[in-house]
Amino acid sequence: MFNDIYKNKKVLVTGHTGFKGSWLCMWLKMLGSEVCGYSLAPNTALFI
Questions:
Q1: Domain extent listing, the chain
Q2: Exposure b/e, 9-29, CB count within 10 A at least 16 = b
Q3: Residue 45 pLDDT > 90, yes or no?
Q4: 22: helix, coil or strand?
Q5: How far apart are CA 1 and CA 36, in angstroms?
Q6: 13 phi, psi to nearest 5 deg
Q7: Measured between alpha carbons, how far is 48 from 3 in angstroms, rounded to an integer?
Q8: How do strand 34-38 and strand 10-14 relate by DSSP bridges?
Q9: Beta strands in the chain (DSSP E)
Q10: Can you give the chain as a three-state secondary structure string?
Q11: How do residues 29-44 score in pLDDT, each as one tens digit?
Q12: What gap in Å lies between CA 40 and CA 17, rounded to an integer?
């Protein structure tokens, strides 16, 4: 569907400790990208 557009790309995700950000990071990793995140400290434990 994305024709490997994210494969071997570096992606910065802001808010990666939140609900949507954590799912986005997992999705981008499955598409083959290198993910780097920036956010505040999480309030709760993440279930990854």
A1: 1-41
A2: eeeebeebbbeebbebbeebe
A3: no
A4: helix
A5: 23
A6: -115, 120
A7: 26
A8: parallel
A9: 10-14, 34-38
A10: CCCCCCCCCEEEEECCCCHHHHHHHHHHHHCCCEEEEECCCCCCCCCC
A11: 999 999 999 988 766 6
A12: 8
